[in-house]
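User: Fold this; C-alpha cells only.

Assistant: Input:
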Amino acid sequence: MAFREITPEQLTANPFTLINRDWMLITAGDEQKHNTMTASWGGVGELWGNYVSTVYIRPQRYTLEFVEKNDCYSLCFFDEEYRSALNFCGTKSGRDFDKDKETGLTPVFGDIAPYYEQAKLVFLCRKLYRQDMTAESFLQPENLKRWYPQMDLHRMFVGEIVKVLERK
C-alpha cells in the first residue's frame, strides 16, 4: 500500500491515543546506518509558527546518537498487529540487534529521514531545538524520584513536522 501526503490539519487520529496507547517509533539515520526506538512519551502542537513534535530520549539509548547526528527524524505509528515489533524495538538495543531484520519492518529511505513501510501514519520532522532535562527544573520532585531513579534524564527534541504521510 502507498502513502499519501496530508496536512497536519487533516489528521483524524487522536494524538494522545497515538502516542500513549499505540506507541511510536522514533527513527533517524540513513540507508547505511539507522536506528529506531519505541516511545510512548511525546507530543505534537504548535510552536514558533510551526507544527511540531516533541520527543524525549534517554542518554543510554542508541537512537540518541542518530537523532543527534542527523537534522531530521521520523515518528511512525502502527496498527495493533505490529505491537510485538514495537515491544522489541523498545526493549532491545540496536547496538545488539538488527531491529529491521528481527521485526520484519521495512525501512523506507529517500525522504528527509527513514521511516517504515508498515506504518499507518508518519511524521517527518526537522530538529529545531534540543535540551537536556535537569533535576533542578522539576517542580514536583516526586516525578523525578518516580521516573528517574537512576537520574538518566531525557534529552528533549522539538522538531518541525515538515511532512505527514498517511497510509491510503
